[in-house]
Design goal:
alpha/beta; globular
Length: about 180
């Protein structure tokens, strides 16, 4: 684990579409920084005792987004953490404000083809339980990409390297800019 050379850095928040690798890259980044890693979707499930698909089924997307905002508000008040957000977290203006004002936001840009490869068998993604998941991913990216870009301090393309390599690129980018 590294020394406290990174303790002065703000929290780091990863945003991007489902299948971008936010959780995997986030774990590597947290390890490199000697920080705790948290995933906002996992925190929602932990706090509610229910799965994301169940919450979507019972409360709809509006209910889920309300829970998500509360969790993001809580997480962004912690210190020395790396957080992977859910793909739709940026759809709420208040979440974008929490993230941008309370840390460094990294957008993991991922083309739809790669998202589809990484998510096509995952039944825990309620928004992809449709007849044409590829079209759904295209539609979501068209809507959300401008929001990811608006909230991001940095954009990293995820089709250029393994998760650990991406984490090292993020760390180098942050070191170059902030230290």
């Amino acid at each position: 684990m590294p020394s406290n050379e990174f303790s002065s850095l703000p929290n780091i928040y990863l945003v991007g579409p489902m299948g971008a690798g936010k959780t995997t890259v986030g774990r590597h980044l947290a390890d490199l920084l000697g920080r705790q890693f948290l995933d906002s979707d996992h925190e929602i499930e932990r706090k509610t005792g229910a799965s994301i698909p169940w919450i979507f089924e019972k409360e709809g997307e509006i209910g889920f987004r309300s829970r998500e905002t509360a969790v993001i508000d809580d997480l962004t008040t912690l210190s020395n953490i790396v957080v992977a957000t859910g793909g739709g977290a940026v759809t709420q203006a208040i979440n974008r404000d929490f993230l941008k004002q309370r840390g460094i936001v990294i957008y993991l840009y991922t083309p739809v083809e790669i998202q589809l490869q990484r998510t096509y068998r995952d039944k825990n993604r309620p928004l992809l339980q449709v007849e044409n998941p590829e079209q759904k991913l295209k539609d979501l990216l068209a809507i959300r990409d401008p929001m990811y870009r608006a909230v991001a301090h940095y954009i990293i393309e995820t089709n250029q390297g393994a998760a650990r390599d991406l984490a090292l690129r993020i760390l180098h980018l942050i070191e170059t800019e902030m230290l």
